[in-house]
Amino acid sequence: MPAQQKKVLFCVAGVLSFACALSIAAAIGTQLWLRGRILCKTGALLVNATGQELEKFIGEIQYGLFYGERVRQCGLGGRPFRFSFFPDLFKVIPASIHVSVILFSLALLVFALIETGFFMYNAFGKPYETLHGPLGLYLWSFISFSCGCLIMILFSSEVKIHHLSEKIANYKEGSFIFKTHSEQFANSFWIILVCSLLHILNILLIRLAGFEFPFSKSKDSETANGAVDLMY
């Protein structure tokens, strides 16, 4: 492939990586990771609420990695209030998983910026082999994709397996018990998914630029070395 086309592909990949970095930074700071509805089970049982009456006992909740907002509904109107994970809910939530999600999100942001720099360096500079050349581009793209997958897996397990929404809703609730009525992942979670897919697209752009995948390249070199050994 001509050098000019390679520069264009690397520039496109660099722009995509930088867009991912900006999107990840925005996602980390928002509370739009999950939206759900919380049922006040105790209040609904007291009045035996069914049908439309049950709506009076269903509140809303949304949160991100650091803070969130909840509307408490127990039949007497909504009572909104905000909460933060640190330090308020630190002892209630699965702290190790939640901190891991934050750390991997920050790592994904850093690796996306590194990936941007290496793509631009390969487009306009004179890259070395190993980590500065195509091998480095494959490496940083794969690491970024892996971080994105880990973020989604850990956050999903925190929400679904450890019932994060219920633990938040029942925090400091003495006489009322709240249960998750429905929940769905919000914009920031899907931003992480899209960014992970864009890193896969970057890997395909590197291959389209004419650079072999690292493992296939190593096999070719081993075959060539073996042929040389046979010749001599």
TrEMBL record:
Keyword Transmembrane: yes
Keywords, alphabetical: Membrane, Transmembrane, Transmembrane helix
Cell compartment(s), UniProt: Membrane
Protein family per UniProt: Belongs to the clarin family.
Record GO biological process: equilibrioception; sensory perception of sound
Listed InterPro entries: Clarin
Membrane topology category: Multi-pass membrane protein
Protein name per Swiss-Prot or TrEMBL: Clarin 1
Listed transmembrane segments: 92-114, 135-155, 189-209
Entries under PROSITE patterns matching the protein: PROKAR_LIPOPROTEIN
GO CC aspect terms: membrane
